[in-house]
Design brief:
heterodimer; A: alpha/beta; FAD/NAD(P)-binding domain; five-stranded parallel beta sheet; disordered N terminus; B: about 250 residues; mainly alpha; Cytochrome Bc1 Complex, Chain D, domain 2; 2 domains; 2 strands; about 45% helix; about 0% strand; binds flavin-adenine dinucleotide
């Protein structure tokens, strides 16, 4: 532990990015090194569990470009005015100081799987015994004609949290009276299946107070969506007449946007929008494809027992980037998968006890003030994928006490998972 | 404060066994007939002995230390307006716990199995026939009893207690630590609780009783029913052993 702390201090003492590699290279012989690409929910969890549970026997190096991670989860609550922006942000100090993870703030820009090295944006490269790849999502180019990443300043996706989320909120607040908020919803599979619909609920909540004649338009390529009955019941109850959803039958799957004129073209008909939230189709974070870990679906296939890449036994892929089977792409899932992988990697490299994989997920959504719902399932590895074994979902017509309690639980979960991912918060 | 309730209780009960009554699945629903669960008259005596210090029942009953119990069958937990229930019991009420034969039986066998931090300081009635008599008495004071086996003349409700071997299992804390990784997403390791209860530092028997009550779906919460549903007895014991150690 003390070695880690000194080592971390030595590393952070250097200029960011460049020239920080000699130190870890020297130690590579002494302790097996695990490199983790991506310090989001999956990556930070695996790094923390590996370092904490191996008690110094592993050299855990986490590569993450940002110094503060803003969670997507609860970012919709920020849009709705239920959560502070600052409370979405989490730093890496605890991972380093309390858990002994070496955090390098840089981009991974390439992986040489034969040489087992990762190249860094700031120059140089690091070697590994095992590599964990958890870069989240990127967008499929051209999936919404007229939109590309350069349009995100006009038509934000806000599907990676941070400045995009702030921009979207500012745009909503600046909407003219009676204006239109449009959302282009993504096709399956995408991160957080209820996410777009929770977002609509939160936007409606905000507008209902500040701009009650405003309208919300969802253009959706999917026939149906997660927790649909619950959302539709809630929209009817709390925001009657405000929200319209255009599904594939009415052109929801034939959409183009024109950022310059703030238009959205549905089945050939142009509509004006004051805010247009485009959530494009998604694929594994780019580095996963660069490293040759993805297949033609755009996601990285893994074996269900351990989250190990099907294409390289020294590599694990966690979270949204992985194609594992039935688990939704959620923070809860990424955290759950990370613990399984940490257990396997530690057993591989240090001979610690390996226990069989257990996975689970629960996703809460807030529909209106104190009106929380949830969906969840437990999973097991089966022969060719992670399979759902049991599931539950909130029911329509539940009483308000239960809904409020469900919402309060979600706050408890947020505190719990962020402490589990980044280490207990210190002031 | 709540935790000290629990501690105090355990000091008093030497080697508290887990008593978790579970009505055999489905059986009670099928049986139709006239005979009550137990002997209501004998149950009146049990009530006088074990409950009357805190509860009233029958016409004109009012709240005392505990809420009045008239019409308790089919009543949602924590439903008496104006009675100051513990947060734990209120939570169970909001979750949808309804006092029926199975849930009442489990609660009276071991209150903390059903409501971990209940303010009802009572060790429970280990003796199953005694409980059945009491249940028959409570039922007689309930207008529209649901889920009550009105069985063939000689049949009693089929209730069983967690086998003593299971209750006596001593778990492997290292295995428990691994299994607890799954719990840490919601239950904080440092014992802080906001929206989700703390589960650190509990006596292992209480912990096991609560988990078995979720597993048997006597406690209503769907997340916890699912989590407990796929743990076997040994895994529950391992978790209990682990959580007993931490947060002391
Ligand atoms: C609006 C919204 C609401 C949501 N709500 C919920 C919810 O309520 N509950 C829930 O469980 N989930 C929710 N999610 C989903 C959740 O945010 C994701 O599923 C989760 O973050 C996935 O974790 P991950 O580790 O795969 O990716 P991320 O958490 O996105 O982490 C990826 C990290 O990798 C880094 N990275 C990327 N490329 C590189 C590279 N080349 N080199 C180094 N680092 C790199 C990124 O900077 C990032 O920090 C929500 C998502 C959205 C968008």
């Amino acid at each position: 532990m003390s070695w880690n702390r000194r080592h971390f201090l030595a590393m952070t003492g250097m200029a960011t990015g460049t020239a920080l590699l000699p130190a870890p290279m020297v130690m590579a012989q002494a302790r097996p090194r695990v490199v983790v690409i991506g310090g989001g929910t999956g990556g930070a969890t695996v790094a923390r569990y590996l370092a904490k549970d191996s008690e110094g026997a592993l050299d855990v190096l986490l590569i993450e470009p940002t110094r503060r991670y803003y969670t997507c989860y609860f970012s919709n609550l920020y849009l709705g005015g239920f959560w502070d922006y600052d409370a979405l942000g989490h730093g890496y100090a605890n991972l380093a100081s309390d858990n002994g993870v070496n955090v390098v703030h840089d981009w991974a820009i390439g992986v040489d799987r034969d040489a087992r090295t990762v190249r860094l944006g700031g120059g140089g490269s690091v070697g590994y015994e095992r590599l964990v790849v958890a870069p989240g999502i990127d967008f499929v180019e051209g999936s919404v004609p007229g939109w590309d990443v350069s349009s995100q300043h006009i038509m934000p996706h806000a599907y990676k949290a941070g400045s995009q989320t702030q921009l979207l909120k500012a745009q909503i607040e600046a909407m003219p009276e009676g204006g239109t908020f449009a959302m282009v919803a993504p096709p399956n599979p995408y991160r957080c299946p209820p996410g777009p619909y929770e977002r609509v609920s939160m936007v409606a909540h905000l507008l209902k107070q500040s701009n009650p004649t405003a309208k919300i338009l969802i253009v959706d390529p999917k026939e149906s969506f997660s927790k649909q009955a619950l959302f539709e019941e809630g929209w009817q109850k709390h925001y009657s007449g405000m929200i319209t959803r255009i599904g594939p039958d009415f052109g929801g799957n034939n959409v183009e946007v024109r950022p310059q004129t703030m238009e959205i073209v549905i089945d050939g008909e142009a509509e004006k929008a004051d805010v247009c939230n485009v959530i494009p189709a998604q694929k594994a974070g780019l580095i996963a494809a660069d490293a040759g870990l993805t297949d033609d679906t755009g996601w990285a296939p893994v074996t269900p027992q351990d989250m190990r890449s099907r294409l390289d036994r020294n590599v694990f892929v966690l979270g949204d980037s992985s194609a594992q089977g039935d688990m939704p792409k959620s923070g809860f899932s990424a955290n759950s998968q990370a613990k399984v992988a940490a257990n396997v990697i530690r057993a591989d490299l240090t001979g610690s006890r390996a226990f069989p994989a257990r996975y689970s997920n629960t996703c809460w959504s807030l529909i209106a003030d104190g009106d929380g719902v949830k969906v969840g399932a437990s999973y097991e590895p089966s022969e060719d994928k992670i399979s759902s074994v049991e599931s539950f979902v909130s029911k329509t017509g539940e009483d308000t006490d239960l809904r409020r309690q469900t919402y309060e639980e979600s706050i408890g979960w947020y505190k719990g998972i962020t402490a589990d991912v980044f280490g207990a918060p210190t002031a | 404060m709540n935790r000290s309730f629990r501690r105090a209780r355990h000091m008093g009960v030497a080697a508290a066994a887990i008593i978790l009554a579970v009505a055999t699945q489905g059986r009670s629903d099928q049986q139709q007939g006239a005979a009550p669960i137990g002997d209501a008259e004998a149950g009146a005596a049990v009530f006088a002995e074990d409950c009357a210090a805190c509860h009233q029942i029958g016409k004109g009953a009012t709240d005392q230390v505990g809420p009045q119990l008239t019409g308790i069958f089919d009543r949602p937990a924590g439903a008496i307006e104006g009675f100051d229930y513990s947060p734990a019991l209120q939570r169970m009420g909001a979750d949808g716990l309804i006092w029926r034969l199975k849930t009442l039986d489990a609660f009276l066998a071991n209150p903390v199995a059903m409501v971990s931090d209940t303010a009802m300081i009572f060790d429970g009635i280990a003796d199953s026939p005694r409980r059945q008599d009491l249940l028959a008495f409570l039922r007689a004071h309930s207008a529209q009893p649901g889920d009550i086996p009105e069985s063939a003349p000689t049949a009693k409700a089929i209730l069983f207690e967690l086998p003593p071997e299971t209750a006596a299992l001593v778990g492997d804390p290292e295995y428990g630590q691994y299994l607890a990784q799954e719990c840490a997403t919601c239950h904080q390791g440092d014992g802080s609780a906001e929206g989700i209860p703390a589960i650190t530092g509990w006596p292992a028997p209480d912990f096991m009783a609560a988990m078995h009550a979720y597993k048997a779906k006597l406690r209503p919460h769907p997340v916890m029913q699912m989590m407990a549903g796929r743990l076997d007895d040994e895994q529950i014991a391992a978790l209990a052993a682990y959580y007993e150690q931490i947060g002391e």
